[in-house]
Amino acid sequence: MSEAFDVAIVGAGPAGISAACILAQRGVKTIVLERGEYAGAKNMFGGVLYGYDLARILPDFKERNCPIERNIVESRIWYLWQEGGYSISYRDRAFAEERRLNAFTVGRARFDRWYAEQAKQLGALVVGATVVTDLLKDAAGRVVGVRTDRPAGDLAAQVVLLADGVNSPLAVHAGIRPEPRPVDIALAVKEVIDLPEEVIDERFNVGIDQGITTEILGSTTWGMNGVAFLYTNRHSISLGIGANLADLARERVKPYEMLESFKAHPMVAPLIEGGKSKEYLAHWLPEGGYETIPQLYGDGYLIAGDSAMLFNALHREGSNLAMTSGRLAAETILQAIEKGDFSRMGLQSYGERLRQTYVLPDMQKYRRFPAFLEKHQELFNKVPELTGLAAREMLTVNGVSKKKKQRKIWQTIRGKMSLLELMRLAWEGWRSVK
Amino acid sequence: MTVKIEDKLFLDRFKVDDESHLKIVDGAICMTQCGEQPCLYICPANVYKLEKDRISVSYEGCLECGSCRIGCPHLNIEWRFPRGGYGVRHKFG
Q1: Strand partners, A283
Q2: What ipTM goes with this model?
Q3: Closest to A61 (Cα-Cα) out of A117, A123, A99, A125
Q4: Does B32 touch chain A (CB under 8 A)?
Q5: pTM metric for this prediction
Q6: Between chains, do B12 and A278 touch, taking CB under 8 Å as contact?
Q7: Hey, which bits of A287-412 come out as E strands?
Q8: Measured between CB atoms, does B16 come within 8 Å of chain A?
Q9: B 45-64 residues with CB below 8 A of A?
Q10: Which of A48, A131, A263, A284 to mutate to test the interface with B (most CBs of B within 10 A)?
């Protein structure tokens, strides 16, 4: 591998392959290095991709037989305590018709492999089973290539794009990004549970090829800052739970025990009953938000996707930010090739491009959100039970007047939380997302 | 609730390398200076187990998340990715 490339991309995920597609289409000599045996072998996420961002890279992704599991027509949000919970959901005809494939589920082992195949067809070289262990730098500190774990595995490139995911010892080692702090990371575990296609259609009240997403908050994460999810695939359900890594360490919780108790919740168990687990996975989510985004480019390199900590924790969007940041990195590189300038100055329009799209504005809008969740753990311990008990009381018909019930509920709440605490929760919550 | 992690890892496919990609740098630190030992809890594959006089490392079932590396209060775990093509191989992802 002593060949020289215009662009070396580390990682064949949504960010890296998006960039490779754009570059290869324009005849740029591009190599993608993937540590898994095939693209997708190491990748996992909750399960949702977004058509808008993918279509900016491959407008004909449907005709190219993108391996879509189900088109999302309904989004549910649950707020749970141990005994039950609140559910709010929104379904819209438009998402089944003219806005079809706004969001859809995929399995990453199949999708990433398919996506990498498209990049290959467009002319990029995608090489698996290769770990990039270091960046090559010249005497002035400019990045001029990558070192891999293959024999004689140094590879020269005009510019390197790091798209190697949230867990990137490479970015840390090369001084491009600090190691994330446990408080900036959520560790999620997920199971894929097989169920017949018709059973899923019936249980979730959806038509053929249609699916739902459920985001779940509350006491499911055992009082820790975290979130659970349940997404429908064609003939399986993706079900997972994640919590802040610092919380998990402090509370001495084993993530898979939390997962198992989540599966047994009265609102979850009936949905997966009779299903057979076929895979168990674990992955980080970069939840630190805007403040943890590193310098996004420098002499001879750019960084995109999860490795750049681009993740919208409130809206559970990440794969789209990865695709779009990968595309914008590629467009920046095209401009740099034209000017023959791969210095930090030559690549600085990347930051501008990210600011002109939704990527950085969304990150900035919710910059206070991670700190809000970290500070207000009552959202995960006290509040779920209090609100659950309130609903249980109001819905129980037992001859007690509603006024008396309300007084009892209010007394219970005030026994656990002061008025000031409640007001601070509401005010700071609003401020963190406004 | 006790969950057998072996049953979950049994669902996964691994290509196991002969050599571990995870190494405890100084085993004495774990036993004498680390009260919390979070590696015993946070690891989603239960790679780290407390033995009589040390913490053992069953790297074979590692899901490569990186949590032990940044979660170790003494940064006492030398962590690298398995060699190219080795380690966990997702079927669905």
Answers
A1: A188
A2: 0.97
A3: A117
A4: no
A5: 0.97
A6: no
A7: 297-298, 301-303
A8: no
A9: 45-46, 63-64
A10: A131
pLDDT in tens, A371-396: 999 999 999 999 999 999 999 999 99
A260 with B1: Cβ contact below 8 A = yes
Residue A86 has pLDDT above 70, yes or no: yes
pLDDT over threshold 90, residue A351: yes
- Nearest neighbour of B42 by CB, restricted to A41, A130, A245: A245
CB contact under 8 A, B93 and A129: no
Q: What is the pLDDT of residues A3-55, one digit of tens each?
A: 789 999 999 999 999 999 999 999 999 999 999 999 999 999 999 999 999 99
Distance CA A222, CA A367 (A): 25
Q: What is the DSSP letter of B18?
A: S
Q: What is the dihedral of CA A104, A105, A106, A107, to 10 degrees?
A: 170
DSSP bridge partners of A125 = A31
Helix orientation angle between A319-339 and A349-356, rounded to the nearest 10 degrees: 140
Contacts of A419 (CB under 8 A, 6+ apart): none
Q: What angle do CA B73, B78, B80 make, to 5 degrees?
A: 125
Whole-angstrom Cα distance, residue B40 to residue B46?
A: 7
Rounded to whole angstroms, the Cα distance separating A84 from A79 reads 9
Q: B38: closest CA among B48, B29, B28?
A: B48
User: What is the number of residues in chain A?
Assistant: 434
Tell me, yes or no, if B18 comes closer than 8 A to chain A by beta carbon: no
B20-44: b (≥16 Cβ within 10 Å) or e? bbbebeeeeebeeebeebbbbbbbb
